[in-house]
Write a structure and sequence with these properties.
Layout (H helix, E strand, L loop, with lengths): L10 E7 L1 H4 L8 E7 L6 E8 L3 E8 L7 E7 L8 E4 L4 E6 L2 E4 L7 E3 L2 E4 L17 H16 L6
Antiparallel strand pairs: 1-4, 2-5, 3-4, 6-7, 7-8, 9-10
Length: about 160
């Protein structure tokens, strides 16, 4: 147990990394909770808490001078199942459990609909670059080639 001195006017941030000793490789925290003992008027209170992949954090506020308080933290682990999603605060992305592993930041779907209109759908067939013709415009051909390269790079058309 760690003993910390706290000014009653200050808010203390305290974090525990559960990963090294308690979580297996690839496991993530699903929740964390904190409690204070003794729970008394004017005593230390949990002002806020958060958790990331393997670290849970508490913000402790208040307290009475000369008193000893115990802050206890816990976490909840659940075995992932296919289709489970979790928000990863550190990267502001979603993680999805699929086929036995976590995919972080990958969005899967049949299409992207914005304002009731589909704006992105399945990948289309390859489009050949400009060639031939009776009038050759090198600047236009270069621009079209760049557009086609960007569409291929983003996976919107086949290569």
């Amino acid at each position: 147990m760690t003993l910390l001195l706290k000014d009653p006017e200050a808010v203390l941030d305290y974090a525990i990394d559960w990963g090294a000793q308690y979580l297996d490789a690839g496991d993530l925290l699903a929740d964390s909770s904190w409690s204070v003992d003794p729970d008394e008027p004017g005593g230390v209170a949990v002002a806020g808490s958060s958790f990331g992949d393997s670290i849970s954090t508490v913000q402790a506020a208040g307290g009475l001078p000369g008193r000893l308080y115990r802050i206890a933290g816990g976490w909840r682990y659940v075995d992932p199942i296919d289709g489970m999603s979790a928000y990863v605060k550190a990267t502001s992305t979603w993680a999805n459990y699929r086929a036995g592993s976590w995919e972080v930041g990958t969005l899967r779907g049949a299409g992207l609909v914005i304002g009731g209109t589909q704006v992105v759908g399945s990948r289309l067939a390859a489009i050949a670059g400009p060639s031939g013709g009776s009038i050759v415009d090198p600047e236009s051909r270069a621009a079209i080639d760049q557009i086609l390269a960007a569409l291929r790079q983003h996976g919107l058309i086949e290569s």
